[in-house]
Amino acid sequence: MKSSIRVIILALLVVCAIACAQNHDHQHYTVGSPDKQTQVAFSIESGELFYEIYYKQEQILEPSRLGLVWENFDFSNNLQLTAVSEVSIVSDTYELVHGKQKSHEYQANERILTLENNEGKELQVIFRVSDNGLAFKYVLPNLGASKVKMLEELTTYNFKTSAKTWIQPMADPKTGWEKTNPSYEESYEKGVAVGSPSPIASGWIYPALFQSDDTWVLISEAGVGADHAASRLAADSPNGEYRITYPSDQEKIFDGAVFPSATKSWESAWRILAIGSLEDIVHSTLGTDLATPQRTDLDFAYVRPGAASWSWALGKDESIYYDIQKRHIDYASEMNWNYCLVDVNWDTNIGYEKIGELARYAQSKGVGLILWYNSAGDWNSTPYTPKHQLLTREMRTVEFNKIRDLGVKGVKIDFFGGDGQSVMQYYHDILEDAAKSSLVVNFHGATLPRGWHRTYPNLVTVEAVKGFEMITFDQKFADEAPKHMAILPFTRNVYDPMDFTPMALHEIPNIIRRSSKGFELALSVLFYSGIQHFAESPEGMTKQPEEIKDFLRKLPKSWEETKFIAGFPGDYVVLARRNGSDWYISGINALETSQSIDIDLSKLGLSSSKGFLITDDESSESWRFEDLGDSSNLSVEMNPNGGFVIHLSK
């Protein structure tokens, strides 16, 4: 009875807020989604700006702060609402060169608030509410002729104290191996109560996943330009109220800026919240919907998604030699993978002249070379080379053109200096210069890309995840890795390409792998990356049945559609991805002991004339293959720490 009364009261509050929208005296307004399921109410209370979110008439976010403080521009209090626009419709259609989905349609209802502080200076807040999503950003339309700097953002996300979160701490800068942090490579807190403090003082990263009753919320940001800093959530969240914070003073390069600054006018990045069921979260495209559209002044026709062989995953530094790389080129060619990544110290172990030979040999095999670089500068102390080649536009242009002329197709750049504005400028400059030299880019030791692969399709993948290499370093993480991997499709990999470097089907030196072979194979479909760098070695692949190799040879190089089938963060997940008329279904079960999971696929409506299943046999180290006829009655049992793949075709 209490629950029913509460729903009625909340519904009346929303209705009242909507009615008040026509009366400026109440200082309380709303904007709703096209399907009317999501409502955002905003108000001025004692001179401070607040917003709250309702989904299906249930309050999801309690009143949460909005505001900015810049030098000479304080919009934290003493605010007056001077104008509220009528609701307008915003729509966009676009295609991605690579992503979990190719074609996109975005539609939202927009409302713009105009406010003044007690000095008469103006702030605008733009709200866009789409089905299962909210985006908002700040606009300072008149900063004047002198450059001023941001000091603080007041945005908060105020959850009910009963909510839970799946969230990753942000590493402190200048910590870790050779002072290379932060690099978005920590372990997730799994289903903890909101308000739990971060174990690391630097705070929490995006995307951050929350569960409030039966509704899920994924928080991130998009449209982070070269004049922005990347934000995060503060370490403290009293009573479940999470606030946005900015990088520390150490997160800069070239003695550059940490906080953004501007003259004349400035717009923030979009703060984005996907809202709804777990299916809605996984299907959300807000991260690219609100990203800056593809640069039209650059040519990206050369960009080819695909897969790559990579010796360093299992062979480490000792594998970066000419003969071993030639063998990995042969391996990529045999597997129908279109890239081979040559990692650290190639300049000293192999040299430019021999890299040119390898590039020509690779091209004869239909394979493109990708070369590793150290981001360099004084923000890390790593010994790996090449180290000082990319620091300025002039240096990058010379180096990128040099390797392009050798026949190299891309670069992997590692060990970035944090999230300050000068680092964001560096990312954008690299992507622009690489595009001018027709090179694809993979960032490692890097920030979350926040939709940049829409703006720069040559950004094929980014690490920004505690990935496979961490399993090879540490048995403790190897033990928890299955649960970690079962969180990523609901968080890190929802919007952006992720270079987890998956799939060890055979042995990991000095490590006991807890996931089954079926689990590992499933990651080839489950994880999205513009170029998927596979960890398995040529030697390990020779030990696999021909059916496995054939599956990986024919795996599509890009996806057109993704469907969520079932799952729960950290427990299990099943996704289906489409290329043309072919569907690939993959699932992993991170539950331990004897907790098998039965997955009913009969309601998917994925008709086919033929198909097959690959999964674990009774042993986690053996395979079971099954030809599939009628796909309308499909069901699969996933063993503990096990997984499967299904291919359905017309």
TrEMBL record:
Its subunit composition reads: Monomer.
Task: Look up the record and name the cofactor or cofactors this protein needs.
Answer: Ca(2+)
- Glycosyl-hydrolase 97 N-terminal domain sequence ranges: 31-293
For this UniProt entry, the molecular function terms from Gene Ontology, in alphabetical order, are: hydrolase activity
Record's keyword terms, sorted: Calcium, Glycosidase, Hydrolase, Signal
Q: Which InterPro entries match?
A: Aldolase_TIM (IPR013785), GH (IPR017853), GH-type_carb-bd (IPR014718), GH97_C (IPR029483), GH97_catalytic (IPR019563), GH97_N (IPR029486), Glyco_hydro_b (IPR013780), Glycosyl_hydrolase_97 (IPR052720)
UniProt source species:
Belliella kenyensis
The name on file for this protein is Glycoside hydrolase family 97 catalytic domain-containing protein
Q: Does the keyword section mention Hydrolase? A: yes
Q: Which Gene3D superfamilies does the UniProt entry name for this protein?
A: 2.70.98.10, Aldolase class I, Golgi alpha-mannosidase II
Q: Where is the signal peptide?
A: 1-21
